[in-house]
Design brief:
With 386 residues, the protein is α/β, with parallel strands linked by helices. It contains 12 helices and 10 strands. It has a domain at 164-204 and 229-244 and 268-384: Thiolase/Chalcone synthase (Peroxisomal Thiolase, Chain A, domain 1, 3-Layer(aba) Sandwich). α3 links the parallel β3 and β4.
Length: 386
Amino acid sequence: MVDLFLCPIFVLVMANNVFIYDCLRVPSGKKGGLYKKVLCENLTSFLVNQLLERNQKAKSIVTELVVANSIGTMGNMARYAALGSTLYSSVLSSTVDLQCGGTYQAIKHGEALIAANRSQAIIAGGMESNSLMPTRIYNKNDPRYTENSHIGVASFSPNGNIDLKQAAENLALKYGLSKKQMHLWTLNSHKKASQFVGSDLYLKHILAYEGNTTGEQLIRKDLTFESLERLQSKNLIDRTNSADYHDGAGLVLLGGENSFSSKPLAQIVDIEIIGIKPNVAPEGCILGAESLLRKNGLSIDDIDIFEINESFACKPLAFMKYFNLDEGVINVLGGNLAFGHPFAASGALNLINLLCALKLSGKKYGLVSAGAAGGFGCAILIENID
């Protein structure tokens, strides 16, 4: 007789497909600008409420709010946002930090729970306020403490920080990118963004906070190549080809098949976040995407449209050169250089742009990618649902 207690039991669990049913963000604001007195938690509460109003059943089946943040105040900021919204107080809410890869991690968390049948629907995204960044100092017993100095930039590695601008310059040099190329990319980012703003699809997914009519604060319709040359410094990487400090928030509503009566916008095919050396963080947009494609047995030609984080103009340019891509398939609606780079919320901004680009073009597969401070390569592959 076989002793059943000694027999291993194997349970085959089929993963659920996970879909994006809706996505929203607020227009980005400059540091000290549009949202200079607005908590990013309040921006998030506003977006949560809009998602719940727009999607029947959402309030009754959303089990968790996962929001990324990089430079905020102490405490669970996602919980603050949840309590400021119409979500039930029983809904779990958590804040994650992966710097400008934060939204990727938030979505990965939500996607995993739904795929494992642990949740029916989750809201995930990011929020950031450079305007209200708190002033912090190290404790006097901390070996990093120096008198009369505050923490302006986090320490990302015990081996010492490399300035992200220096890392971006190294990336530009590695791929032989000129300042002229980066100026042209910056200029085109603003041009493409200007054309997208005000369109029906833009207005569907980018909502003004509490009736504010200012709109996108960063896009410059009048930007010229000559004006960029006048503003440039002697450095290869400077303000003319880098995103500045911004405020914003963006969220996506995730669910399983038939979680909602409405048709989903897209299916999440896969999410990849890998660790890389911190001093090559900007190159994470390439390394994360390459790892995701390899894992899924795909080539770069299988992807129709790409959205690459534009914290620096050299990143999409290096991506294009590495994969030998045509400029016309990358950041087709403009990128962070025009729309802003609110750190942890940037992934939501980029994903919304990618979804809109797929809808406008009728293309099937899209990939969004970023290199995150601290050394991470982040990528999400989605399939458009017509």
